[in-house]
Amino acid sequence: MPTLQHNPERTRLLSLTEQQLLAECRCDTMRGTGPGGQKRNKTESAVRVTHVATGLFAFDDVERSQHINRHHALQKLRLEFAFHLRCEPTAWKQPVPGPSSDSFPLWAAVALDALFATDFKLADAVVILGTTTSQLVKNLLKLPALWQFVNEERVKRNLPTLKKL
Predict the structure, then answer these.
(1) What is the residue-averaged pLDDT of the chain?
(2) For residues 162 and 55, what is the distance between their CA atoms, to the nearest angstrom?
(3) Which of 3, 70, 76, 95 is most buried by its number of CB atoms within 10 A?
(4) Which ranges in the chain are annotated with CATH 3.30.160.20?
(5) What was the pLDDT predicted at 64?
(6) Residue 162 CB-density burial (10 A; 0-12 exposed, 13-18 middle, 19+ buried)
(7) pTM for this one?
(8) b/e per residue, 29-52, with b = 16+ CB within 10 A?
(9) Averaged over 36-63, what is the pLDDT?
(10) For residue 47, which of 34, 65, 30, 63 has the smallest C-alpha distance?
(11) Which CATH code is given to the segment(s) 3-84?
């Protein structure tokens, strides 16, 4: 079950700059796994960032650059906050940001709050969010990890998976 947390704290976590968030995390580097040849097996380019206060973590080893992997791991960590830190559901009153926007994880968290509160019934969640079902589905589709998370939660509740429009 997701951890209930005071809304301003989650909003603060999702609004931190990359440097501020990194200051609250433990950052571990290691050798990457998988294909990539000799360079990948000799350098510590894989990065795992762990938020000390919540224990949530994210990992990335896609690139050969430790700096790029750290950036990607921090983006994934923001999504972990959205996936696991719940608050009271509220409406989203701004335009929905794109998936590469720094504010997308905050939108995802608000959408997930509404979905968890309504036991993942879209018709009820859109009333809270102040949007339409088709618009919510389109916005969930913007990020494959979010789409997969929502469908996994729906399956746990014996609901059909969402279909792409």
Answers:
(1) 89
(2) 30
(3) 70
(4) 3-84
(5) 83
(6) middle
(7) 0.85
(8) eeebeeebeeebeeeebbbbbbbe
(9) 83
(10) 30
(11) 3.30.160.20
Residue type, 121: K
pLDDT band at 6 (very low <50, low <70, confident <90, very high): very low
Q: Which residue has the tokens 């690139």?
A: 63
Closest listed residue to residue 38, CA positions, set 13, 15, 64: 64
Q: Going by C-beta distance under 8 Å and a sequence separation of 6 or more, which residues neighbour residue 81?
A: 10, 13, 14, 51, 54, 56, 105, 109
Rounded CA-CA distance 156/149 in Å is: 11
Classify the phi-psi angles of 74: left when phi > 0, otherwise alpha if psi is within -120 to 50, otherwise beta: alpha
Retrieve residue 146's tokens: 């979010």
Helix axes 133-140, 144-156, angle to 10 degrees: 120
- Please report the DSSP string for 22-82 in residue order: HHTEEEEEE---SS-HHHHHHS--EEEEEETTT--EEEE-SSS-HHHHHHHHHHHHHHHHH
